[in-house]
Amino acid sequence: MSKVTADYNILAATKYTVNGNKNGHSNGSPMDVEKIFGENTFGLDEMKNRLPKSVFKSIIATIEMGEPLDPTIADTVALAMKEWAVEKGATHFTHWFQPLTGSTAEKHDSFITPNKGGGAMARFSGKDLIQGEPDASSFPSGGLRATFEARGYTAWDPTSPAFIIENKRGSYLAIPTAFASWTGEALDHKTPLLRSMAALDEQARRVLKLFDVHDVSKVVATVGCEQEYFLVDEEYYYRRPDLMNCGRTLFGAKPPKGQQLDDHYFGTIPERVLSCMLDVEKELYRLGVPVKTRHNEVAPSQYEIAPIFEHANVAADHQQLLMLILQRIARKHGLVCLLHEKPFAGVNGSGKHNNWSMSTDTGHNLLEPGDNPHDNMQFLFFCAAVIRAVHKHQDLLRASVASAGNDHRLGANEAPPAIMSVFLGEQLEDVFTQLVRGAAKSSKQSGLLGLGVPVLPHLPRHAGDRNRTSPFAFTGNKFEFRAVGSQQTVSVPIVFLNVMVADALDEMATKLEGHLKGKGKQRKSLEEAVGAVLRATIKESHAVIFGGDNYSDAWHAEAKKRRLLNLKTTVDALGKVGSRKNIKMFEQFNVLTRSELKSRHEIWLEQYTMTVNIEAATTEHIASTMVLPAAAKYLAELTDTLIGCDSVGFRQPGLTQQARTLNAMTDKLQKAIRKLHKVNNDPWGDEADEQAAYMQSTVIPAMNAVRTAADELETVVSREHWPMPTYTEILFVK
Ligand code: ADP
Ligand code: MG
Fold first, then answer.
1. 479 in contact with ligand 1, CB cutoff 6 A
2. CA quadruple 480, 572, 499, 602: dihedral positive or negative?
3. Shortest-distance ligand to the CA of residue 225
4. Is the CB of residue 222 below 6 angstroms from any atom belonging to ligand 1?
5. Biggest distance spanned by C-alpha atoms of the chain
6. In this predicted model, what pLDDT tens digit does every residue of 666-678 receive, in sequence order?
7. How far, in Å, CA of 141 to CA of 609, rounded?
8. Which of 265, 309, 352, 480 should be mutated for ligand 1, with most atoms under 8 A from CB?
9. Which of 712, 644, 713, 707 is nearest to 676 (CA)?
10. Minimum-distance ligand to the CA of 355?
11. 8 A C-beta contact, residue 491 and residue 400
12. 479-499 pLDDT tens trace
């Protein structure tokens, strides 16, 4: 090995320091979680301490019950928030929002305002708190904002606590906000999320009333996300332009050892990684993010972190924070956190399991099977609504996780296929199957529900059976949506899920009301009415229930028979977003207007096109300027050797063959590069959907051809000449 290569191999794992301490031992004492939890958030405790009672009461009504914010209290809250932030070392504040890029955005303003005497004073008014007006012209709007009117507004979301982002030289206060155009159109992911939660709340409460539950004033969607990620050495990262540009490797031959031995999964966490995780967790605790679980994942250098579930809007903000903190803290340990769905070919990619349920303000999880027949009936109703929602809106559920990155994962035997189905577990599936069979005629004898369903004491409270291949699985008291991509914002899948379920609940509640209203003999008891609605609903939607192996070919054939959608790629999936069914539903529940939906559709297509385009350009660049020269150098070396051998009469048939192979491979690479250059620079088409389709059908195959040729070369070119760290190095040096 040349000096350079050897140097970075060894240095990578040995030179990193944390706070100046070698080998990652931070000298801080073990954390006292109770003491530090939430210390960097302006949460309820802090508000209670600092706000007058009446103001606190008013803000609680907004946070917990969704009452409109009383603007007259804004100045008082702002003052308290500023004082708290300044005590914490903050010099600036920012409205923190989630533009349609899928990440977060912030523009910092100082607390300092000039005063009349020519000096300066710290100022932060209610108006500063409630509303901001960032220059929004460079955020994607999908045609929502006329270009001559590029103003956007941010509006404080009091339901998500403000927090401090620390820096030794001056911290700042981040205020979660929604982001809208001057005409009130949502330019972000938070606004529709809040709207979708309101829609779900309304429909769920409507159903509860029909079940004679009258003490519930609010139903909230709850979400807990399990985040998978890779940690790799910073040194390798900077030597890989593909990782830097695209977040994933565009080249890399399969390493001799990958994940075949399953020796990483749930294994002991490497020490350096553990100290990084501990620091990440500490920061997240201070920010009030309740992280709970950590472990090694399947692929080498892959890990997972999961918080405890929270209200969906807070969970979505916290998810963004979690990704931010993971990336930030990793750097302090000489590591880089890769959040891409498929950083490395040949080993597992990363997802983000999205656990979802609905909870009442009285503390009842609506997807928790009950202890008595009435509760069970209600549970089955809500559960059936989710099944109905997934069946009716498979297209949307699939589209909510569509991205260039996730295309590498879905259907690749490591993640669920692109076919959306629901796993219920044997017992619950059986309950619903019995329902459909209509055993209800034997109602009198059969006890509960009058549905031919035996009393259900054994409902899978904490499901023993798990099906890891299902995209959407019931796991005892919640559904787990497993197709979400690791780097994507969870807001989109949550919004879609909320509105889909609201739609199903609406449909079922209308039917239930119809049955309950009938006159005389027509009028059904609640049990009979629920039974009828459940039967009709499940009959319509049972095709989406599947408990078998989602990875198998048999399922693909079966799903086709059941007429389930199989939207394999982002382009296929996005094609369905703007259908009449979807526009109607989003408008009916006031979650997205037609143009808001259209704008998102357009932006997702553009993001797909741009992502592939950048990957293709990076592929070409690396292949032309790094891989091809390395191959040529080694070829020159071999041919020189052969000429030398020849001059002294040595015969070298093996080496000659090696040179011939190398020559052919180099030629193949060169041709593939030329083709890629051409297709990536040809016109892509006029409309966003044409462009995306072009990328998928033409650019991606050309890119793959370059990779194949380069990866073949990696297995023969001298290690000394190979210009990038290999998979073995990146994945196994820790
Ligand atoms: P696993 O899928 O690894 O078995 P767990 O059962 O530990 O995971 O839970 C995974 C996630 O589901 C956690 O974030 C947890 O907080 C979340 N979760 C648990 N209950 C609910 C709920 N009612 N609503 C939403 N998320 C929930
Ligand atoms: Mg899980």
1. no
2. positive
3. 1
4. yes
5. 110
6. 999 999 999 999 9
7. 16
8. 309
9. 707
10. 1
11. no
12. 999 999 999 999 999 999 999
